[in-house]
Design goal:
It is a single chain. This protein is α/β, with parallel strands linked by helices and about 325 residues long. The protein contains 10 helices and 9 strands. About 45% of the residues are buried.
Length: about 325
């Protein structure tokens, strides 16, 4: 677990002194993108005062790795950066400014940019979808994202960090932490101008598996356990109506009803005009066209997660249902 501590002068902001900042990168799976991630952090316009890369124990989940890294630092703010994220040069400077400008701010997180590293359609779709969702929802948030997100160290310690016992592998450990913070009255903000390039390559199978098993089902169970209905990020009414349109499209295909299919897909595109405009601007009509079936699959997986997650919650022993 190497720990480098470059000296960093404290920067002045219009409202206060910028806090000291540590960057923590979970890398227990020996990621091939780690070198690019670390190089970008060191090349930042406001590099971290401490940089911790957590490489052991091998195979430990990101929740445990981030907790271990956080325990090694003394900076006022901890910036968590995934090992497959290449931060923009000004990302950490924007983080410092956010905390300096608002002493009550507990956490802030950013977004992937619109230039994903992998040019293949599935990767571009998946990364641009994340970019679109985050850039469409700036301001106060009730969740957290640890791909490129920062939190005051004292707030993180008081919350007990990430729940590594529950989330032994990559899942929604950051969302769960954000829910606990939000429930306790902590102020969290989404600033989509805090950006990084995602270096991850997605296959269709991996996208479905991740969205269902690692994110969708755990998220549904968490919502049911906490008894809180959320409309944050991709849970707004537009996304729910899009899921309904996707189900209608699947039904039309099964029943061999082309007019109904056209109507359902037309509704999906109309509901998500800005997203499809983004796909077209980044990959032309070809990417926008491929994005339609991929979007349908994405929403069908979300519907499946609601069903499976709901059943898992009902069938789980009462003692295993833990509210965040």
């Amino acid at each position: 677990m190497p720990n480098t501590r470059p000296r960093q002068a404290r920067r002045e902001s219009t409202t206060g002194t910028a806090p000291t900042l540590a960057a923590v990168v979970p890398a227990t799976d020996a990621p091939p993108t780690l070198e690019r991630c670390v190089a970008a952090l060191r090349a930042s316009s406001s590099p971290p005062d401490e940089l911790v890369v957590v490489k052991s124990p091998p195979g430990a989940g990101p929740a445990a790795a981030r907790n271990a890294g956080a325990a090694e630092v003394s900076a006022e703010v901890i910036a968590f950066v995934d090992s497959d994220v290449e931060v923009h040069r000004d990302a950490l400077e924007r983080v410092r400014r956010a905390f300096a400008a608002d002493p009550r701010l507990a956490a802030v997180f950013g977004s992937y940019d619109d230039r994903p590293a992998d040019p293949r359609p599935v990767s571009r779709f998946r990364n641009l979808l994340h970019h679109h969702v985050h850039t469409s929802s700036p301001g106060p948030a009730e969740t957290f994202w640890a791909g490129l997100g920062a939190i005051r160290r004292d707030v993180f310690a008081a919350a007990g960090g990430f729940d590594a016992e529950r989330f032994g592998e990559a899942a929604i450990e950051d969302i769960e932490l954000g829910m606990r913070l939000s429930a306790g009255g902590a102020s969290i903000a989404l600033d989509p101008e805090i950006r990084g390039t995602h270096l991850k390559s997605w296959s269709l199978v991996e996208m479905v598996r991740t969205d269902l098993r690692r994110r969708g089902i755990p998220w549904v169970r968490l919502q049911l356990e906490s008894r809180r209905a959320s409309a944050a990020l991709n849970l707004g009414w537009c996304h729910r109506l899009s899921a309904l349109a996707s189900v209608a499209a699947a039904y039309a295909v099964a029943r061999r009803r082309p007019p109904a299919l056209a109507a359902a897909l037309g509704g999906l595109v109309a509901l998500n005009g800005r997203f499809y405009a983004l796909l077209r601007s980044q990959g032309g009509l070809a990417l926008a066209a491929i994005g339609v079936p991929l979007h349908v699959i994405h929403h069908l997986v979300a519907v499946a997660a609601v069903i499976v997650g709901g059943l898992a919650h009902v069938l789980a022993p009462a003692r295993a249902r833990r509210a965040p």
